Amino acid sequence: xxxxxxxxxxxxxxxxxxxxxxxxxxxxxxxxxxxxxxxxxxxxxxxxxxxxxxxxxxxxxxxxxxxxxxxxxxxxxxxxxxxxxxxxxxxxxxxxxxxxxxxxxxxxxxxxxxxxxxxxxxxxxxxxxxxxxxxxxxxxxxxxxxxxxxxxxxxxxxxxxxxxxxxxxxxxxxxxxxxxxxxxxxxxxxxxxxxxxxxxxxxxxxxxxxxxxxxxxxxxxxxxxxxxxxxxxxxxxxxxxxxxxxxxxxxxxxxxxxxxxxxxxxxxxxxxxxxxxxxxxxxxxxxxxxxxxxxxxxxxxxxxxxx
Length: 307
Known about the structure:
4% strand; mainly alpha
């Protein structure tokens, strides 16, 4: 180091001494007491191969393999890389990890998992405060969990990869889908508060709320379709987000209309059930009665939607 500059200094033998291994054996090195001894007195020189440089990561030796992606998503390339390493049958002293974009993707997925859990908790708290109930928020949130497989299925059908953008689309899809259940449950509770029986209240609520549900669903699908079909630079990343929302919203429309009333009836019966007084026989009779009621409700809703 000289002033503000730093220079790399490398020492090597003169050109004549570098041609013969015997010259290396005659080199003098310092001993422990400070005296000089010949290198041949303490070592044996053999010809062989060694790495040109030794790299370390977290104080351990590492071998870095760098590759560029060609018509392959990052997630698929990472899985294929792990499969290739597994086929080598390396010993327990070897371990693998990702750097660069792979490391960023793993950290992003971990952060998304934390955000997903926190969003579930916050949504439950807000819905419980609005409906003043601990049961109805669970009924509404069932539709959110139904949107997850439909969103992933839309990616599989269209061939889009699971990326950070598609995960963002899943979050958006969950927020959009649950509003259908909110409309159904809220109007059902309103009708029941006016004295209408539960079965008629559910049918009436689904029939009245069907129009706003269809309006919002079709509006979202129409707004996201140009993004899903777009072309140009960066269109692939945006298309994966829009595909999740369009496909998941379209497939969740009919399911939420049918499943939400059934789940509502189940939890409403479960809320008034006294488990202390119910024996196995009565529990079986109760389950058969609820299953028959759910079947009739699904048939009535399917007939109404068909009309």
